[in-house]
Specification:
The protein is mostly helical and 163 residues long. It is 72% helix and 0% strand. Helix 1 runs antiparallel to helix 2, helix 2 packs parallel to helix 7 and helix 3 packs antiparallel against helix 5.
Length: 163
């Protein structure tokens, strides 16, 4: 399938089926499963340079990298190490922006080519494990069910790409 909304529609259909089959679960758990399936149906296209999710990922990556560098620079440990060199807030912001954009660029360029490893079963398992771990960290319902939901959503994308 060529368009992200077609993958999302498939993901929403699978989400609807899951919500009907799992209606006895709690509301927050059902919501987490729905997010895992729907988001999973879009994630594999993160390896396509012009996909919607890749464009959104780039924005998030840039902002996140800048924020992370800023937090590291202003931390007590690093702050004392560089205090003799960098003392003005504008200097810290310039360093944060430059380093953050550089990190984001390197990460973006290291994403494999389209329909490579990201469109495989191994990547689907990694996504399912991340969903499982997120459910544990956030203490949301059954991590196993949420992980399975993530696996179903991710695999739906890779299967529909082959149609």
């Amino acid at each position: 399938m060529q368009n992200w909304y077609q993958h999302l529609i498939i993901g929403l259909i699978l989400t609807s089926i899951a919500l009907i089959l799992l209606r006895d679960l709690g509301g927050i758990e059902l919501a987490a499963i729905a997010v895992a399936i729907s988001f999973g149906s879009l994630v594999p296209d993160i390896d396509h340079p012009t996909s919607k999710i890749r464009k959104d990922f780039r924005k998030l990556l840039i902002v996140g990298s800048i924020a992370l560098v800023y937090l590291i620079i202003t931390s007590p440990f690093v702050g004392t190490l560089i205090s003799g060199y960098v003392s003005e807030m504008w200097q810290i912001l310039v360093i944060s922006i430059f380093a953050g954009v550089t990190i984001a660029y390197i990460i973006d360029r290291s994403i494999p080519s389209h329909r490579g490893i990201i469109h495989g079963v191994l990547a689907a398992m990694v996504y399912a494990i991340l969903c499982y771990l997120a459910a544990i960290v956030l203490t949301i319902g059954s991590p196993l069910m949420i992980g399975i939901g993530g696996l179903v959503g991710y695999l739906s994308h890779t299967i529909t790409d082959r149609l």
